[in-house]
Design a protein that fits this description.
Elements (H helix, E strand, L loop, with lengths): L1 H5 L19 H10 L3 H32 L5 H11 L5 H13 L6 H5 L6 H11 L4 H9 L4 H12 L1 H16 L3 H6 L8 H4 L4 E2 L2 E2 L1 H32 L4
Antiparallel strand pairs: 1-2
Helix pairs in contact: 2-13, 3-7, 3-10, 4-7, 10-13
Length: about 250
């Protein structure tokens, strides 16, 4: 991708892995990537979507995982079984009914339509539930005796101890929804709400695909993900390796 982004488009297919400094077209390719389409707007839309989705996912998933891990209620095993069952359902299955519902409500081409299908994350609930089960139940019972509400227990006790798992899931979530093309392609058809991957389609025309600017644009939208991972890599590795281990 990087080699194609800095090469003359005519040389991309003739010798893909060569790099002749005399034939570099990095300036032209990146210039066209930034000027041919509003990449800044597309990346801002993606940022709004990933932050909105992650925020709701953390709120709903942490609360649900705490209930499944540290509370006792009728139907608990059934609820956890439904969460595991939800992991087996591909996104293509509920896509059509969700699209019809959003269309009838007039919510297409909006940030809400881009975020709505991902507010519930079965993977997050499963991951956090496994992490929360390792938290000593005696400490939670003592906190309840001291008058802590369930929200206080989650915010002041559970969440601080589960930061590695939360950071790991955050990397997964941000990466998945930053790179998502399938759902935005269905619910968005106006430039003002296009996300970064969907905006890459602007480099395809009747004359063909401009591969140099396309690869330059792909490089631009990939850099934020690399920065996110580098910032959270320690928590990410710890969260993935230690989740569910006592």
């Amino acid at each position: 991708m990087i080699l194609a982004a800095v090469k003359n488009p005519a040389d991309i297919f003739s010798d893909p892995f060569s790099l002749d400094p005399a034939k570099l077209h990095a300036g032209e390719n990146f210039g066209k990537a930034l000027n041919a389409a509003p990449m800044g707007l597309f990346m801002l839309n993606s940022l709004i979507v990933v932050v909105g989705v992650l925020s709701v996912q953390l709120i709903t998933s942490i609360a649900a995982a705490h209930a499944l891990a540290q509370m006792k209620f009728r139907g608990q095993a059934l609820m956890f079984g439904l969460v595991l069952f939800a992991l087996c359902i591909p996104v293509q299955v509920p896509a059509l009914p969700m699209y019809i519902a959003l269309a009838k409500l007039g919510l297409l081409n909006s940030y809400f339509s881009l975020m709505f299908p991902w507010f519930f994350s079965a993977f997050a609930i499963f991951l956090f539930r496994q992490q929360f089960r390792t938290f000593p139940r005696e400490i939670i019972n003592a906190a309840r005796i001291d008058g802590f509400t369930e929200i206080e227990i989650i915010v002041r006790l559970i969440v601080p101890s589960a930061l590695p798992a939360i950071a790991a899931f955050s990397v997964f979530s941000v990466t998945a929804h930053w790179n998502d093309l399938y759902w935005p392609l269905i619910v968005v058809n106006v430039t003002d709400r296009m996300t970064a991957p969907l905006g890459l389609l602007n480099f395809q025309s009747a004359e063909g695909v401009s591969y140099g600017p396309l690869m330059a644009a792909a490089t631009i939208i990939t850099l934020p993900l690399i920065c996110v991972f580098l910032l959270a890599r320690r928590y990410f590795v710890e969260g993935v390796t230690m989740t569910g281990v006592k």
